[in-house]
């Protein structure tokens, strides 16, 4: 009798409706793509460089994984792998990584993120001195890589330029 007084059917149905509404919603999972610790700072720097140029880089919305890889051939310094069922993946040759400067590491990671995140293709345009006009050039045989502290800003401006 006391139970009926404290708990009527109206409250019961409201409580059941509440549980049904909130227990039947799809679980939304945000899973971060894996990025090797040695690459994560450059992924973060890529985000910052994009922001400085008005480009929002959102690795949660468009995840890209990053791995140092020992299985890439000696002539392959880095690679972007596209996979329609999984996040795109940047692979960096570990042997190459271990012997180059910080600026060369930045160049390589930004080049591969240009493919994986910005969906950029290779661009082998060169100036009258034979220097590459883009960080997205295909190889040193196409043009001379002039990426340096002095040219860095102009290369990054071109990388993030949506009007190319």
Report the strand count.
Answer: 3
**CATH topological fold name:** Zincin-like
CATH architecture: 2-Layer Sandwich
Note the total helix count: 6
Q: Which segments are poorly predicted (pLDDT under 50) over 5 or more consecutive residues? A: 12-30
What is the rounded Rg?
25 Å
Mean pLDDT over all positions: 86
Distance between the termini: 78 Å
- Largest sheet features: 3 strands, mixed
Main CATH class = Alpha Beta
Q: Order of strands across the biggest sheet? A: 1-3-2
SSE-based structural type: alpha+beta
Strand content: 5-15%
Helix-strand topology string = HHHEEEHHH
Structural shape: globular
In total, the number of domains comes to: 1
Percent helix among the residues?
A: 25-40%
What do these coordinates show?
There is one protein chain. By secondary structure, the protein is α+β, with helices and mostly antiparallel strands. The protein has one domain (37-159): Zincin-like. Helix content is 38%, strand content 10%. The chain is built from 6 helices and 3 strands, in the order αααβββααα. The chain has a 3-stranded mixed sheet with strand order 1-3-2. The longest helix is centred in the N-terminal third of the chain and has 16 residues, at 37-52. The model is unreliable at 12-30 (pLDDT under 50).
Give the topology:
Blueprint: H1 2-6, H2 9-23, H3 37-52, E1 64-69, E2 78-81, E3 88-93, H4 94-97, H5 102-116, H6 152-159
Parallel strand pairs: 1-3
Antiparallel strand pairs: 2-3
């Amino acid at each position: 009798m006391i139970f009926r007084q404290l708990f009527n059917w109206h409250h019961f149905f409201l409580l059941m409706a509440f549980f049904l509404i909130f227990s039947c919603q799809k679980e939304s999972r945000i899973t971060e793509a894996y990025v090797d610790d040695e690459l994560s700072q450059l992924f973060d720097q890529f985000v910052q460089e994009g922001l400085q140029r008005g480009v929002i880089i959102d690795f949660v919305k468009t995840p890209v994984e990053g791995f140092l890889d020992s299985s890439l051939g000696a002539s392959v310094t880095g690679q972007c792998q596209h996979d329609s069922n999984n996040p795109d993946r940047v692979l960096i040759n570990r042997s190459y990584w271990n012997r180059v400067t910080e600026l060369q590491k930045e160049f390589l990671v930004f080049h591969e993120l240009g493919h994986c995140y910005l969906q950029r293709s290779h661009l082998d345009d060169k100036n009258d001195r034979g220097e590459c006009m883009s960080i997205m050039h295909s190889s040193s045989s196409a043009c001379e890589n002039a990426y340096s502290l002095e040219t860095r800003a102009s290369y990054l401006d071109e990388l993030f330029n949506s009007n190319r």
